Amino acid sequence: xxxxxxxxxTVATAATPLLIAALGELVVERSGVLxxxxxxxMIMGAVCGFAAAQQTGSxxxxxxxxxxxxxASSLLFGFLTLTLVTNQVATGLALTLLGLGxxxxxxxxxVGLPGVKMESLYIPFLTDLPxxxxxxxxxxxxxxxxxxxxIGVTWFLFKTRAGLTLRAVGDNHTSAHALGVPVVRIRYxxxxxxxxxxxxxxAQLSLVYVPQWVENMxxxxxxxxxxxxVFASWRPWRIFAGAYLFGAVSIGQLHAQALGIGIxxxxxxxxxxxxxxxxxxxxxxxxxxxxxxxxxSLGKPFVPDR
Amino acid sequence: xxxxxxxxRPQHSALFxxxxxxxxxxxxxxxxxxxxxxxxxxxxxxxxxxxIEPLTEVWSIHELxxxxxxxxxxxxxxxxxxxxxxxxxxxxxxLIAGGIAGSILPVVFPDFQGWYVLPLxxxxxxxxxxxxxxxxxxxxxxxxxxxxxxxxxxxxxxxxFLDWLVRGPWRNPQGYNFPETVQFNESAILPAIWAESxxxxxxxxxxxxxxxxxxxxxSRTLNGFEIKVLxxxxxxxxxxxxxxxxxxxxxFLISGALAGLAGIAEVSGAVGQLRTSISPGYGFTAIIVxxxxxxxxxxxxxxxxxxxxxxxxxxxxQISLGISEKSARIFQGIILFFxxxxxxxxxxxxxxxxxxxxxxxxxx
Lengths: 306, 364
Prior knowledge:
The complex is a heterodimer.
Chain A: H1 3-30, H2 38-56, H3 59-83, H4 88-107, H5 133-137, H6 141-159, H7 161-171, H8 173-178, H9 183-209, H10 221-231, H11 236-259, H12 265-269, H13 271-284, H14 287-293
Helix pairs in contact in A: 1-6, 1-9, 1-10, 1-11, 2-3, 2-4, 2-9, 2-10, 3-4, 3-9, 6-7, 10-11, 10-13, 11-13
Chain B: E1 2-8, H1 14-38, H2 43-51, H3 58-83, H4 91-108, H5 117-143, H6 147-167, H7 203-220, H8 222-232, H9 234-239, H10 244-271, H11 282-292, H12 297-321, H13 327-347, E2 348-354, H14 355-363
Antiparallel strand pairs in B: 1-2
Helix pairs in contact in B: 1-2, 1-13, 2-12, 3-7, 3-10, 3-11, 3-12, 4-5, 4-6, 4-10, 4-11, 5-6, 5-10, 7-8, 7-12, 11-12, 11-13, 12-13
């Protein structure tokens, strides 16, 4: 395996959780709901995915446990913000705090235990192709899911009637409601999808990226995923580009640390966070462009009049 | 089948406005009892060691005040932010910035001693917290950048910077390579309130003073009125001639200063030196405190004590019952959920409708 290929692979592994979580949040925000609990749902996915895989010995069961954990956490958020119409920002923060706390407690007995790593794909001949073989045909299943999700979410949002309805709900919930669209039900489904994606992204961390459980192992990735949605101005393919850009930054700084170029490791480690801030500033400075793309009902409470 | 429906009240309910924090606490206790039963512990003794035991000893009441001090300081600042619709969730980073800035004198100039050292440290810590909070405020006002994400990203940056500082240039040369700075000299230590009985320091008094001042500002001055108007409706605020940009800076500067103060109070009052980690997430727990206190500085004093109790309760439950002290963080998260849910009762009437009567209604 060449150096080029190895770097490409690690970038993909670092980008995949960001991509999946951000795609989920994209659908949520397109329906007009702002769920700031991505970090919390992701860490629940990571810990439950790890625990289930560790107990059963099957990475696949772990993956599904992660998805379920993320979806279950998002249901809590959905009940509060959609049924009880609580403040979405505050409720999302609550979900993140609860997720970080609950995962620390659930994971306490799993610290230091060896995990179950998800097997990578191997197709004779194809995987052995030079340069691109491993990247295209030799990665873990969640990588392929992330690519399918990118295509699927694009298709769903822009090519299907259901996607159009979801976007209409996000842009004007009052009109959608007047037209007889079940606003709250659609938002529940969107929130559940976002939670499942965040859970899957978390499971990728604890089953593929570093197959072990470490407290707070998401390390802000849920927040970076939220930033990616803004960066992508709510478009799936731009999320893909953004996720790989961030994957490249975080892997690049690791390689630079390994080369020992004399810059303290802590400064290199803060690069992904600083890059997030810089990218957000660059994107949001054009106020008109941001306003044009933001779902108009994003974060606003909706109470159906009866 | 049952369905929950909410109906907007014509006027918000003063009764539930006062009751909602208590409803939330009661629900949290019930949820806690259920949680402990699932874990196979006796819920009564678990709740006892969580919420009563820490209050039975003098030393642990001191510990309670130590933990409540940073929570109240930060939450009071956050109340100004949240009321004005500025979502500063990077208080943890501002706390670290304040802790670092306030430690410059005792770490870099340990020979500089005298009564004036401590006041200077407090001022420096506030300046440090303010400077760090200015970044998200400036980006929001100038570039329209989401302050939630920027302020949060800066927490990670601050943690990494502190880690570098304490392992690198500020490490105690005589410290056997431990990642710690030198011990602060006598004049750089925030004194105990009542040294004979325990180690609670003046940070708690500072927190009470800050709460009363901010309460006065919010409820009795034009500035406070401006904060509430702009927070409820940016449009109405603009018509009244209030500037949202100026207010954003004001809110972030106040909360940054108070978080910075919390940082130095923790470093110089509770620990006595700078370490790689100076807070068990006070900046985030303070968000819960602010909401439980209904964004009212006086309510926040009480809420800060409750959340501080949960930290101590976690430790007590671990020792006496073998429940992980991390259960405290679950409690804290659950409290916020219940607070938000109970707040719904203030503005809405909740009806539980059964599907049966619903269809009967439609049939008629």
